[in-house]
């Protein structure tokens, strides 16, 4: 460290780069969560359809 350095605080470009990386990671996490929720909804719908089909088959037995 040189004279006047205050340690590990980031300033200028590095601080902006770090906050951008955090923001990008947050957006990516939100996107992945949204995709996972959509997949879960499709699976729930498919399960509902399968249950309906199984109930119809049970009626015929």
TrEMBL record:
InterPro entries: ATPase_inhibitor_mt. GO terms for molecular function: ATPase inhibitor activity. Residues 33-60 form a coiled coil. It is found in: Mitochondrion. GO terms for cellular component: mitochondrion. Keywords: Coiled coil, Mitochondrion. The keyword Coiled coil applies. Inhibits the enzyme activity of ATPase. Its main location: mitochondrion. This is ATPase inhibitor, mitochondrial. Belongs to the ATPase inhibitor family. Pfam families: IATP. It comes from the Eukaryota.
């Amino acid at each position: 460290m040189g004279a006047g350095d205050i340690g590990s605080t980031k300033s200028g470009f590095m601080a902006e780069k770090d906050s951008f990386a955090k923001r990008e990671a947050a957006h990516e996490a939100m996107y992945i969560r949204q995709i996972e929720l959509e997949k879960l909804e499709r699976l729930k719908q498919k399960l509902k359809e399968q249950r309906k089909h199984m109930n119809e088959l049970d009626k015929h037995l």
